[in-house]
Design a protein that fits this description.
Blueprint: H1 11-18, E1 31-36, H2 42-57, E2 62-67, H3 70-87, E3 91-95, E4 100-105, E5 108-116, H4 123-126, E6 133-137, H5 144-152, E7 160-165, H6 173-179, E8 187-192, H7 202-211, H8 214-220, H9 234-237, E9 253-258, E10 265-273, E11 276-285, H10 287-290, H11 296-307, E12 315-317, H12 322-331, E13 336-338, H13 343-355, E14 359-361, H14 366-372, H15 392-405
Parallel strand pairs: 1-7, 1-8, 2-5, 2-6, 6-7, 9-12, 11-14, 12-13
Antiparallel strand pairs: 3-4, 4-5, 9-10, 10-11
Helix pairs in contact: 1-2, 2-3, 11-12, 13-15
Length: about 425
Amino acid sequence: MNKSGFTSFSQKQLVALSWWHDGSPFCEKDGIICDGAVRSGKTTCMSLSFVAWATFRFSGEAFALCGKTITSLRRNVVTPLLPVLRSLGFDCREKYSQNFIDISLSGKQNRFYLFGGRDESSASLIQGMTLCGVFFDEVALMPRSFVEQAVARCSPSGAKFWFNCNPENPMHWFFEEWIKKADEKNCLYLHFLMKDNPSLSKKVIDRYESLYSGSFYERFVLGKWVAADGLVYPEAANGRYTKALPGGSGEKHYISCDYGTVNPFSLGLWSKFGSCWFREKEFYYSSKKSGAQKTDEEYYLELEKLANGFSIEAVVVDPSAASFVECVRRHGKFKVIKAKNDVANGIRRVHEAFKAGKIFITPECKATLREFSLYRWEESSAKDCPKKENDHAMDDIRYFVSTVLFEDEDDGFFAIAADR
């Protein structure tokens, strides 16, 4: 092992590291696009190569490192990158509060600004800058307006673009406009699989393969741009994750809530047994089916009935249910947490929680089991969207998993890296 901590690179990683260098057959390309499986070594090689290229070609210039959020960018790119750079002799001075890093080597210094491309408004953050290069981590999670604005900032001679991502829907704008048009845009395109990362052992690869199923498996393990179709949770619909409560009583308890007046209202009581959470029981009410609407106070009484006999850590509530959140807070009995509500990431997290044996549904939760058999992906959509029907227990499960089990994760995709 050398002083940087790397034992070896695969051939594909070596290309990603050196494509821009004089003598490379790709040195005249304007950019590089790397997509494919999770943990396939894309980000580490690309970020290291990006800084090396910037230092080799420029001095006293500005560059951008972009992620969906600055938090995810720091976690996925900056935090693992800086120790490697320092071990190679780079001086890295991070101005945390101002979101930039000054990186220097052998008398040459450049500034790397950090940007989050969370939504359409993010484009204004980068507008007006002049950049010599821009690096996009998980570009498929960013809005097109932000990416195009950042690319437009790269006007100096010799500027280059760097993109990496895991696959999404095949109708996604980045797949259509950049991957399919890589030659037209004079970009090098590299497709990565887990086998392209020598630091992953077979045990680690097997673990990641076990985390996903369906379209998530095809995307995150096989690295394919495929559409999500059919049932959202097919294995749950087949009863794989239906399980009776263990003996004894749970150690912790939460309640998750999807609020509805005209649409159904769903509550789920979650109890922790060891490392597993069980949806122990539920309340589900459809005003359409019953022919009568309930008020917030009536729903609150149902919440108290469900919680009776349990010490509730918090109630995780649909973030749009402002009136019900206020009603629960006014009674002063339960702590209220507004749920994380990124649908696609939330569904991915629920899949991971099921596959890892972290959550189970008891047979008593009949409304949930019914919805599992009906909850389907929207067809012919450029985004992964489940149909807005039979989704109320599905939503409150997603709120619980995203907000409690994945409380430290933001809404950018994240998978834990293997030790090097």
